[in-house]
Design goal:
The protein is built from two helices and four strands, in the order αβαβββ. The protein binds zinc ion. Zinc ion binds next to loops.
Length: about 100
């Protein structure tokens, strides 16, 4: 389950920012998740609640924002939005 390591990484970022900006409490964490990130949202919610205990974000609300899938096309050199990993490039029709 890579959601546990994601939650641990989020905690590290929050703790680092808390030290830098001298705050001790986080109420909401907004997390942007790309379509191809392979994140199980329910698992991440569970891991988030467990991992945040005892830290600045204990009890914080986790808001997950879905982002479209993005890919780099080696055929035309453009960064494009895809609905599915196997879709052709919408710019040039390439599959690389
Ligand atoms: Zn292309």
């Amino acid at each position: 389950m890579h959601e546990m390591s994601l939650a641990e990484g989020i905690r590290e970022v929050i703790e680092d920012q808390a030290r830098r900006h001298d705050f001790s409490k986080v109420r909401v964490v907004r997390l942007e998740i790309g379509r191809f990130a392979g994140v199980e949202k329910r698992a991440l919610e569970f891991c988030f609640d467990v991992v945040m205990r005892g830290g600045p974000a204990e009890g914080a609300v986790l808001e997950m924002i879905d982002l479209p899938g993005r890919a780099f096309c080696y055929d035309c050199g453009e960064s494009v939005v895809l609905n599915d990993r196997l879709d052709p490039c919408p710019n040039c029709g390439g599959s690389n």
